[in-house]
Amino acid sequence: MMTFSELLQKRRAIRDFEEKEVPLKIVEEILQEATLAPSASNNQPCRFVVVQCRKTIKALSDDSKANLLQDNADKKIKLNPDYVTFLQNENFNVFYNASCVIYIVGAKSVGSLDVDGALAASYIMFSAAARGLGTCWVALGANIRDPKLRAELGIPDSCRIVAPIILGYPKAISAPSERHAPDILRVITEAR
């Protein structure tokens, strides 16, 4: 069993996966551990949608790509030109052909949903890494608007997607990128 420090080192953003499927039992274990994440007032607002159908994952990718490109064209958002090129590529899958996508969703009315969802996402990522699995938070995959796809996902209009997390067996785990020292603005201690 790895130490917490080792787990922090092993958790990397993975975008290249083996063809191997992640057993649903393991996904359920990961989600059970994600429910341990803290949330504002212990409200536990996050809900999860698991997609393990490659055809559906491709349809979700295509819908999200089309919506992002349309929003960019309508000047609702400004995408990095490199992203535009990727999104215009018919063969590019925003989920990097992962065998599993976990959507973290919750009620639009919950003010702390972004923070609560980010904490749940972190727990998913660490739980997966502890099992030798790879993950990546793919914000480009959150723009699902097709009513049929949303219905298939079971996401009501009162809810929104906070985080799409891809999950799978990594082909490789890269070394951590170089990180700078903490930028501590100030330390205030008791006067002695």
Question: Could you please describe the fold and organization of this structure?
Answer:
The chain has 6 helices and 4 strands. It is of the alpha+beta class. The chain has a 4-stranded antiparallel sheet. Helix 2 (24-34) packs across helix 5 (113-130). The protein is globular, with a radius of gyration of 18 Å. The mean pLDDT is 93.
Explain briefly what this protein structure is.
The protein is α+β, with helices and mostly antiparallel strands and 192 residues long. It is built from six helices and four strands. 37% of the residues lie in helices and 14% in strands.
CATH-level-4 superfamily name: NADH Oxidase
The DSSP helix count reads: 6
Percent helix: 25-40%
**Envelope shape:** globular
Largest sheet: 4 strands, antiparallel
Enumerate the spans where pLDDT stays under 50 for 5 or more consecutive residues.
Answer: none
**Percentage of residues in strands:** 5-15%
Which architecture name does CATH use?
Answer: 3-Layer(aba) Sandwich
**Integer tally of domains:** 1
**How many E-type strands?**
4
Text of the CATH class: Alpha Beta
Mean pLDDT: 93
Please tell me how large the radius of gyration is.
18 Å
Give the strand order, joined by hyphens, for the main sheet.
Answer: 1-2-4-3
CATH-defined fold name: NADH Oxidase
In whole angstroms, the N-to-C terminal distance is 43 Å
Instruction: Give the H and E element order.
Output: HHEHHEHEHE
